[in-house]
Specification:
There is one protein chain. By secondary structure, the chain is mainly alpha-helical. The protein is about 70% helix and about 10% strand. It folds into two domains: about 30 residues; about 110 residues, Winged helix-like DNA-binding domain superfamily/Winged helix DNA-binding domain (Arc Repressor Mutant, subunit A), CATH 1.10.10. The chain has six helices and three strands, in the order H-H-E-H-H-E-E-H-H. A three-stranded antiparallel beta sheet has the order 1-3-2. Strand 2 and strand 3 form a beta hairpin. About 15% of the residues are buried. The mean pLDDT is about 90. This is HTH-type transcriptional regulator YusO. It holds the Pfam family MarR. Keywords: DNA-binding, Transcription, Transcription regulation. It comes from Paenibacillus auburnensis.
């Protein structure tokens, strides 16, 4: 197998794994889409953000984030507040319900991921962590 084939095969295997994880997400019956969860998770880690900041963090357009946050607002997972200096700007903050759903989803996802990765020896897990750290570092350079 050529080096180029290796890259392609690894890419396909990784995409297949992520597709399986996404399908399992859908089977769990979460009240959130993965993108909605990512938005809440970013807010939990970074604190209150403007729509444009959240859009950049999620690599989405501000219009897409507005749609996502409208649903999260309707479900009472977030609050939107006008910024004091610029009434057009909207700051998004998590509510107690938002924090609660993050914990619920993270706990369930931890169980699901454990079921996948528990079949690997600790040495393989160490290799995966190291490999992904190197790859992510390279991606972050660009």
């Amino acid at each position: 197998m050529t080096e180029r084939d290796d890259y392609f095969e690894i890419s396909l295997l990784f995409k297949t794994f992520l597709k399986g994880v996404a399908q399992e997400w859908n089977k769990q019956g979460f009240r959130l889409s993965q993108t909605q969860f990512k938005a809440l998770y970013v807010l939990s880690k970074e604190g209150p953000m403007m729509v444009s900041q959240l859009a950049a963090a999620l690599d989405l357009t501000p219009a897409a984030v507005t749609g996502i946050t409208d649903q999260l607002l309707a479900d009472a997972y977030i609050q939107k507040e006008r910024a004091e200096g610029d009434r057009r700007a909207v700051k998004i903050t998590l509510t107690a319900e938002g924090k609660s759903i993050i914990k619920e989803v993270k706990d369930k996802q931890k169980e699901v991921m454990h079921s996948y990765f528990s079949i690997l020896p600790e040495e393989d897990m160490d290799h995966l962590r190291r490999i992904f750290a190197v790859l992510i570092k390279e991606i972050d350079k660009n």
